[in-house]
UniProtKB/TrEMBL annotation:
Transmembrane parts of this sequence: none
Enzymatic reactions: N(2)-succinyl-L-ornithine + carbamoyl phosphate = N(2)-succinyl-L-citrulline + phosphate + H(+)
Protein name: N-succinylornithine carbamoyltransferase
Record-level Gene Ontology MF annotations: amino acid binding; ornithine carbamoyltransferase activity
Residues annotated for N(2)-succinyl-L-ornithine binding in this entry: 142, 176, 236, 281
UniProt xrefs under InterPro entries: ArgF'-like, Asp/Orn_carbamoyltranf_P-bd, Asp/Orn_carbamoylTrfase, Asp/Orn_carbamoylTrfase_sf, Asp_carbamoyltransf_Asp/Orn-bd
Key word Transferase present: yes
Residues that bind carbamoyl phosphate: 47-50, 75, 110, 147-150, 277-278, 305
Keywords annotated in UniProt: Amino-acid biosynthesis, Arginine biosynthesis, Transferase
Domain of life: Bacteria
Length: 320
């Protein structure tokens, strides 16, 4: 595997889930694979889980790991071509990328959406430059439009906790005080469409996800109807994807607190489990009672990030 951005990159999803189970049962079984190999993790944005779980996964595989926080100590990077660099940016990404590539075997990149220019974000302008100029396999640690390590961990978690063969999984928008990217809901939708689940998306009008990700999933604007009988409730805020009106891309269209997941919302479900990628803002996305309940999967879900990362890094090492 040379890149990891979309669910298709894994090939047969059932085989990948079986591999995840095997890796989870024997996470130090492939130490020789990563010996004398180096993973470079590059962060343009903050992280807790991705940083820790991906480093842990690489260490499980016997790798050395270098972490670069671009905004904490590195030269400020120019990302556009054709500019006169007379501002505060000292180095161009087009030199920085091959230099970074020369010190590692694999690269993980976190670079969130700017939420200002839809075409720029949805073209994945930054990470595609890493793919093109680093000379190394590159995987997403949340890019402008996708967060596949999260969605893979979410699917592993659903497989582990489902009580019926084909569970009902509901992705619900919830309110937030800041404009957030669509990477998490995009990938979650893409992965649920590829999995054997009954998948429903619910959000206020205007928050329609890009058709590339939501595909033929059922979209239900009535949150109560959507949640009825749900086995898994996946809450997430996202800003306007600009599908209907590109001028609204990245805007907050609603802060409707009736969408916050509380015990009443969960009472509409089939004793459903609560999921969120974290970090989560209590009181906006979810109440304390729900996130602390026995049906909350947020901690095992985060723990499975180590497993999704280990499968992906293992496959990249195998293809070196
Ligand atoms: N990697 C998981 C989510 C990261 C990001 N959340 C955030 O930026 C939340 C920040 C805050 O709550 O202030 C997002 O939604 O894509
Ligand atoms: N879920 C997730 O990616 O968390 P971090 O942003 O803390 O890495």
């Amino acid at each position: 595997m040379k890149t990891f951005f979309n669910v298709e990159d894994l090939g047969d999803l059932k085989a990948a889930l079986a591999e995840a189970q095997e890796v989870k049962a024997n996470r130090f079984g492939y130490q020789e694979l990563g010996k004398n190999k180096t993973l470079l993790m590059i962060f343009f944005n903050n992280s807790l889980r991705t940083r820790l779980s991906t480093q842990k996964a690489a260490m499980n595989l016997g790798m050395n790991v270098i972490v670069l926080d671009v905004n904490a100590g590195a030269w400020k990077l120019e990302t556009e071509r054709g500019v006169i660099m007379d501002g505060d940016k000292s180095e161009h990404l087009l030199e920085a990328i091959p230099v970074m590539g020369s010190f590692c075997d694999l690269i993980g990149v976190r670079s969130f959406a700017g939420l200002k220019d839809r075409d720029y974000d949805y073209a994945e302008t930054i990470v595609n430059q890493f793919v093109k100029y680093s000379g190394r396999p590159v995987f997403a640690m949340e890019t402008a439009t996708v967060h596949p390590l999260q969605a893979f961990a979410d699917l592993i978690t659903i497989e582990e906790h489902k009580k019926v063969a084909r569970p009902k999984v509901v992705l619900t928008w919830a309110p937030h005080c800041r404009a957030l990217p669509q990477a998490v809901p995009n990938s979650f939708a893409q992965w649920m469409n590829a999995a054997d689940v009954d998948f429903v998306v619910t959000h206020p009008e205007g928050y329609e996800l890009d058709p590339k990700f939501v595909g033929n999933a059922k979209v239900e604007y009535n949150q109560k109807k959507a949640l009825e009988g749900a086995d898994f409730v996946y809450a997430k805020n996202w800003s306007c994807p600009g599908v209907k009106d590109p001028a609204q891309y990245g805007e907050i269209l609603s802060k409707d607190m009736s969408w916050t997941i509380d015990e009443e919302h969960m009472s509409w479900t089939n004793d459903g489990c609560f999921m969120h990628c974290l970090p989560v803002r209590r009181g906006l996305i979810v109440t304390d009672d729900v996130i602390e309940s026995k049906n909350s999967l947020v901690i095992p879900e985060a723990a499975n990030r180590e497993i999704s990362a280990e499968v992906v890094i293992k496959r990249m090492l195998e293809s070196l």
